[in-house]
Structure formats: C-alpha cells, structure tokens
Design a protein that fits this description.
Length: 283
C-alpha cells in the first residue's frame, strides 16, 4: 500500500483530480461532499489543504481531501487504509482539524489518528444523507420562490452565518460568509429565496451538479418565520431548479439531532441513504 500526498499547487490539484474523480464519480451520491469540494478547488473557489490518494500497485484504493479550516473528507477512504494515511498526514498535515464522512470510514481514521497523536476526538455532529426520489412539493404554503440576485448578498451572508451558528456552533473554514456567498454566485449555484408578501422568509441553496448530483445546503428559515412550511417549500423549489438544470440526483444532509428537518424532507420526496459524522480533534 502506497499513500501519496499531492502538492496543493495547480499541478498537484490537476494530478489529484485525474486520479480521484473517476473513483468519486462512480457513486456521486455517496461522495457528494468530496465531489463538491473537489469541484470548488478546481474552479478556484476553495483553497486546498490536503489531497491524498492510496494505491496498491497500479490500482487506486481510496482518496481523501480537505480544504483550509475544514475536516478531512473520507467517504472514499476504506478503513484498512486509515493507519497508513494518518502516518503520512502526521508529516504533511500535522494540524489536521478533524474528519468527516460515513460512520465507518470516519471511525477508522479517527481511531488511527487518536492512537498515534494522542489527540482527543469530539463528535461535532451526526448527519444523515438523503437523496431525492419523486419530488412532492408541499401544498398550500403561502408565498412564492425566486432566485436570489446581487442585491440579496447582505441577506444571504447574514443567513449563512446564522445557519452556521445553529448547525455547527459557529462559522468554520478559511473563507468568510461574505466570501462564500460571493463564491456561490460566481459558481452558478441556485440560491432560492421563499418570499411572502415581498419579504424573504426562507433560503435553500442548490449547488451546481457534479457528476450529475446537486447538493442542497444550507436551508435556513429565520426563527420568527418557522413552523409555516417555508423550509419545505423553498427546499422543494431549489430541488426543482436543480432538476431543471439537468441534475440526475439531488441530495442533502440533515442533523440527526434536529427532528424537524429529519421529518420534513421525507414528506417532499427525500429518502435516507447513509449516516455520517463530523469529528473534531482537540490537542
């Protein structure tokens, strides 16, 4: 088994992508986060921090990647590779902040990292990945959807920050909420607002389809407007926009600690695929 850490310059990114993309695209639903992050890296929207491939002779066993300030994405890293990968990261990425991915793969890398480094691992969030079956928009929700425009940037930035405060206990990553909002416009994401009587009351963002899969997130309704179906309605509108753009799969993650989101998405056609976690390392 050979572990390769790829440089994060243009040549390194291109070499990693050429190896990783076929493996990730073989299952674009399972690897939706990795594909989305890789797409952002290639298009200059995300600064890479670690790009890792694992080989067995001429074959590719697995890949892992992360951007600055974010955990290592391990959806395509088999558990048997965890010890070898962590040994390389000990030199190449010694301040690894955490791990994210399906439960089994994340647990394997976490165990290897803790055993070697002595870091403490804290479970940040438990997630469930859903994929859209047949879209069933909710009926009788007051209001209409519209695409966000440049004049909405300040609102979108505030709502992204508020979503992060609730979902992950604060903003994370190297870019600010304003930079992420600007990047979403630049990358052509569908940023859909739900409006009632001319007032925005909900937001859902559908990323550009990568390997046929568009991932929705964030979905945010301000506290004063909750309980009226706006979150379901705006999510359905964003999903419809992604399908109209040609996506074959539409996916999203929910926080398993949030019973509301885990109940509303199945009602509009989403079905559970797998459970995942984000783990933070503390030294």
């Amino acid at each position: 088994m050979e572990v390769r850490w790829h440089e994060t310059d243009a040549d390194g990114i291109a070499g990693f992508a050429a190896l990783a993309r076929p493996l990730l695209e073989a299952d674009p639903v399972r690897h939706t986060v990795a594909l989305g992050v890789l797409d952002g890296i290639e298009r200059g929207g995300e600064p890479p921090a670690s790009l890792v491939t694992v080989h067995d002779g001429a074959g590719l066993l697995g890949v892992a990647l992360r951007t600055a300030g974010r955990p290592l994405i391990v959806s395509a890293l088999p558990g048997r590779c965890a010890v070898a990968v962590d040994a390389v990261l000990a030199v190449a990425d010694p301040e690894l902040p955490g791990v994210a991915g399906p439960v089994g793969e994340a647990a394997a890398l976490t165990a290897a990292h803790v055993a070697r480094s002595g870091a403490r691992a804290g479970l940040d969030v438990r997630l469930r990945l859903f994929a859209l079956g047949e879209l069933t928009p909710p009926a009788a929700v007051a209001g209409t959807p519209r695409e966000a425009v440049a004049a909405d940037r300040a609102l979108l930035t505030r709502w992204r920050a508020a979503f992060a405060d609730e979902a992950t206990h604060g903003w994370r990553g190297a870019r600010t909420p304003a930079q992420v909002t600007a990047g979403a416009f630049a990358l052509g994401y569908r940023q859909v607002l739900w409006e009632r009587a001319g007032e925005p009351v909900g937001l859902a963002v559908a990323g550009s389809a990568v390997a046929g899969a568009s991932r929705i997130g964030p979905v945010y309704t301000p506290p004063a407007h909750r309980g009226r179906g706006y979150g379901s309605a705006v999510t359905a509108a964003a999903a419809a926009a992604a399908l109209a753009d040609g996506a074959r799969h539409v996916v999203l993650f929910t926080d398993l600690a949030n019973p509301v989101s885990n109940a509303i998405y199945p009602r509009i056609g989403f079905r559970p695929v797998l459970d995942a976690v984000e783990v933070a390392f503390r030294r």
